[in-house]
Amino acid sequence: MEILSLNVTPLTRAAFSPYGDVIETAGAQMRLINGGTTQRFHDLAKVDVTGPGARVLVNIFRGQSLAPPIDIKMLERHPLGSQAFMPLQGRPYLAVVAEDEGGRPGSPVAFLCQGNQGVNYARNAWHHPLISLEAESDFVVVDRGGEGNNLEEFFFEDRLYRIGSI
Known about the structure:
mainly beta, five-stranded mixed β-sheet, 2% helix
């Protein structure tokens, strides 16, 4: 099996845009609400759900901490809805994504996400499951509930992507 090195780059809106949205206050449209006592950072991610009985779910996921080397053996996608992750403890984490190439993921790209940045994986965007760093971490996750199969997994059989350092 071929082992390919996967470099980690900082998360930015521009670099992540083919895969979804970055959820952060920096550069976002801000409105004062509640008589001027609250700042609302408006419309940070497109929540996209489709299919029979589709509804938006709000969850908390608790991810176990991983440290390099981290092997990327598979990616998944959700054909019926987007999936947003927002860290609760301010700890960094990784977002590993890939563009679609004929129904399967292409070469993955890894982003280092700061503890004040969330990601919203677009519907059908290939991504790795949650990769927490430093310590066990909680995330608010907004995704789809309802009928239908909203999970497709792809396992790399002939190659392995490895994150050696962050």
